[in-house]
């Protein structure tokens, strides 16, 4: 009768499955803000950048305004 390997031995023999953090990944903001990834068409991206440039604001500011506008539209207080 052959002895089965222990679960610890099985884990040691299996390939590493832990996810390693991405190099250069940003840490969370000190004020608790979280990032949102939005995919836009090249034309939409270009127009949003133009708005930011024309208004002498950052694209971050323009998108924060957009988030607050959506919140207001649905009867929620602007929080962004």
Mean pLDDT: 82
Q: Structural class, judged by helices and strands?
A: mainly alpha
Oligomer: single chain
Low-confidence runs (pLDDT<50, min 5 residues)? none
- The backbone outline, from C-alpha atoms, is elongated
Number of helices: 3
Instruction: Give me the count of strands.
Output: 0
Distance between the amino and carboxyl termini: 66 Å
Strand/helix succession: HHH
Fraction of residues in helix: 40-55%
Please give the radius of gyration in angstroms.
24 Å
* Percent of residues in beta strands: under 5%
Sheet with the most strands? Answer: none
Written account of the structure:
With 80 residues, the protein is mostly helical. The chain has a domain at 47-80. Helices cover 44% and strands 0% of the residues. It is built from three helices and no strands. It is elongated, with a radius of gyration of 24 Å. The model has no long low-confidence stretch (mean pLDDT 82).
Brief characterization of the structure:
The chain is mainly alpha-helical and 80 residues long. The protein is 44% helix and 0% strand.
């Amino acid at each position: 009768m052959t002895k089965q390997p222990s679960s610890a031995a099985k884990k040691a023999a299996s390939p590493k499955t832990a996810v390693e953090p991405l190099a250069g990944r940003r840490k969370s903001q000190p004020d608790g803000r979280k990032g949102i990834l939005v995919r836009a068409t090249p034309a939409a991206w270009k127009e949003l950048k133009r708005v930011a440039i024309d208004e002498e604001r950052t694209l971050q500011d323009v998108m924060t305004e957009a988030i607050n506008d959506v919140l207001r539209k649905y009867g929620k207080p602007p929080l962004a």
